Structures are given as C-alpha cells and as structure tokens.
Protein 1
Amino acid sequence: MFAGVNLLDHLAARVRQLRQRHGLTQEEFAEIAGFSYKFYQQIEAGRKKQVWLETVERLSASFGLEAWQMLAPEEPGRTVVAGPVKRQAVAEPASRYLTRPARRSGRPKKRR
C-alpha cells in the first residue's frame, strides 16, 4: 500500500485503463494474457484478495511493461499489446521440495 491506495485496487484500475486504451474487451485481453476470462474479470473488478507476482508479471508483459511499471504510481507512457503470454517453464518442479522422501525399502524401522 502506498499513499493510502490499496495495491490491488491500483492494479485493477491500471489494467482496466490500459485494456481500454488499447480497445480490448476483458475477454480479448484475458486470452492475450493467458488467463481465463473469469479470473481476469475478478482481478479487474478488484474481487481478488491476493494476486501472485507471476500474475502481475504476466499482466505487465501483455502490455510490454515490467511489473514495477504496472505497479508504479505514475501511468506508463507508451504501451503495446504483446502476443499471447506463456508461463515460464520451471527448471525443477516445486513438488520435489515439498514432499517427503520415500522410505527406503528393506528392513522396517525399529520402534523405540
């Protein structure tokens, strides 16, 4: 939050403003940004309680901006509508780090 403005409200207003500047409907822009129409509609309406950084990056990239430019207080000057934005591939799946390692086969673990 900066200067009394909720960051999610700021993001919602900014994407709405940029989408309208380029003459796109919510559905058209959602497709360009790689989101479902309903998900994008919730962002723009300010009904999302939290938004991931990856989401802000994808929204920004759709207008040829960096995430900081989308969130900056001043309006970005020149923007362009990029082609469909694709998710970046993750080098290693997070599940590798979030799951327990498999038990070794063999003798059962002794109880104390």
Protein 2
Amino acid sequence: MFENKSAESKTTAKKKVHKDKSVRSVKKSTVQTMPYECFVSNYVCLLKTGVRINKETTNLYSKTYLVPDTNYSALTKKEQHAMMLSYIEMLNGFDSATNLQITLLNTKMNKEDFQDKVLLKRQNDGLNEHRDEFNEILRKRVMQGQNGIECRKFITVTVQAINIEIADSRFFNIEAHLSSCLESMGTGLIVLNANQRVRLMANILRSPDEDIFEISRDEFARRSEKTLCCPDYFEFKKDYFMFNDKFAKCLYFKKLPNSIQDTILKDIIETNLSLIVTENIEFVEPANFAVLLRQTCHQT
C-alpha cells in the first residue's frame, strides 16, 4: 500500500508540474513583446490593466519626459550640493502609488537631427564653400567616429489608477512637482507625445535613421504603431540576446558599495557606447519602511 501511494503521489506531482508549465504564456510575435497595451491619449500610455496591488485591482499608466542637459561638473561644490538636495526633494515628493524610471540613453545621432543641430547652414554671403568644407569634416569626425553617440536623459513616471481621468489628475500634480524641482536644478521638463515615444522606441529597437511618418489617431486606436517600433525578431541566448542586426546584453548592479562617487554614471556614459542605463525607483510608505528594512536585514 505504501509503495502504491508513493507512486500515486509522484504521478500527481508530475501532473501538477505539467499543468503549471502549460499555463505559461508564450509570445507568438515580436509585436506582442512590446511592454504596453496602447496609448489612451496623446501623452499617456496604458501599460497594463487589471493589476492586483494590495488586494485592489488597478491599471498602470505612464508618461515619459525629456530632461535637457545641465552642466553639473562645471558647478562649484556648494552648487553641486544644492543640486543634490533638490534631487532628494524631488524623490521625496512621490508616494507608493507611483514608480519612477530615470534613463540615460546613449544612441547614434539621427542624421537629420545632426544636419539641423550641428552643420552650418548655407547663406548668400559667398562663404558657402568654406561651410561645405567644414561640414564635411564634421560628418567624418562625428558620424563615422565614436562621437556620433548622443546622450539623452528621460524620466518615465508610472501611476496606479482605475481610469484615465484619475491618472491625468495625478500626472498633473507630478509634473508640477517635477518642473519645480528641475528648475531649481537648472534644467526643465519636456513631455513626449505618443509619436515621439514611438520614435524613441524605434531608435532603440530598430534604427535612429529609419523613417517614421506621423502616426494618426486611427492608427493608434488600431494599435498598429507597434509594428513601426518593434524589431523584426528576438533571439535569446544564455547571457545575451539579439534583435535585428544588434547583439545586446543586460547587466545590473547586484550590490553597491557603501560610498560611491557622484560621477559614476557620467563615467559610464562617456564610454561612447550604445547603451541604456536605468535607475528604477519604487517608493514605500513610511509605515511600511521599517518592516521592509527588517526583512532586508534578515535576508542579508
């Protein structure tokens, strides 16, 4: 009897394992791997619906902002300290219903942007021959060398809300807070619309020089914009993955030292490689912080 029960239990265990594996959802196309559902307005993206958080069902909405560059290294020690205090104040203004992602993006410069922002414009003053010669030197030095990499900084805010109206209200308050803090840091905040976010995803997953025409509201309603920014294929290996003609690898800081330099991210970005550095921040209510701290210390 014991042996039969043992064999029966093993058979049941195998069935359970097989059942658990069959539930797993496998993406059938690269379009389905895009980590959002749709754009619900010209600025807000719906990431996921029906998310269970603390026994409540909610939705996740996000907005992405471009942060113009500020020359931190040229400031005095006192000014740098004041900027760090403003940064801490900015983080303290968020609650547990909000997630924050700070992104430093190194990508190759778009050729059209390069021509508009860097190259000298032709004029009717008889000096166009010298401008053309100078522009040709810039093309060879910048676009063909490592300096063809440009760094941009983004802040992506994700809020929990049961509908878009509540999400818009939260985004309004968050933008006011971010604008105030960033202004004291000597920079600003530029919200990206739906077309600009698709262009940004295409820069990463396809090519900065790929032409994407203005996407209409009807196309967004059909969710056809995903085909413009998703790669043609994904292939995952043991410790790296491939998409289109690119090889990529994900690395993370498993444990940070007790003391780090404030230039650590600057040193990484200045490697002039195509890379993405993200800092994902999840905020905790003060009442739950002590419990989380004890759990962390216990695991350590």
